[in-house]
Amino acid sequence: QVHLVESGGGLVQAGGSLRLSCEASGQSARNHVLAWFRQAPGKEREFVAAVSWSGVTTHYADSVKDRFTISRDKFKPMAYLQMNRLKPEDTAVYYCASEGPLHHSASDYYPGDFPSWGQGTQVTVSA
């Protein structure tokens, strides 16, 4: 199983930026899809973005498209989520997930597809 650790969350004003990191370790950590999900208080966990093991294919939720960028390191088993033009509605705990499938579209991603999860990192965007 892949072990995941997120970092980089914090408090930022609306319009600001944050960069989240996800470090993966364990067997074949480099060879799996890495995805970001988020969960706001009182809401279900929702898909944010995913990247293929090669880094070539990416998918984004409509709510973050053109503001967030997912990428992965070519040499280290790490993924990143660059978040720009943050909005108060982006406030949530952000989770890194792995060992799930690479779907054809963003609407196909569900938390239940991913068996490996990090502990989450809080992102708070103030108005």
What does the model show?
The structure is a single chain. The protein is globular. By secondary structure, the chain is mostly beta strands. The strands form two sheets. Strands 2, 4, 5, 6, 9, 10 and 11 form a seven-stranded mixed β-sheet that branches. The chain has a four-stranded antiparallel β-sheet with strand order 1-3-8-7, with no helix packed on it. The mean pLDDT is 94. It contains no helices and eleven strands. The chain has strands at 3-7, 10-13, 18-25, 34-39, 46-51, 58-60, 68-72, 78-83, 92-98, 116-117, 121-126. Helices cover 0% and strands 46% of the residues.
The class by helix and strand makeup works out as mainly beta
Give the SSE string: EEEEEEEEEEE
Q: Poorly predicted ranges (pLDDT <50, ≥5 residues)?
A: none
- Residue share in β-strands: over 45%
Average predicted confidence as pLDDT: 94
Radius of gyration: 13 Å
Total helix count?
Answer: 0
What's the story with the biggest beta sheet?
7 strands, mixed
Shape: globular
Work out the number of β strands. Answer: 11
Instruction: Please estimate the helix content.
Output: under 10%
Amino-to-carboxy terminus distance: 39 Å
Short description:
With 127 residues, this protein is mostly beta strands.
List descriptors.
four-stranded antiparallel beta sheet; 127 residues; globular; mainly beta; 0% helix; seven-stranded mixed beta sheet
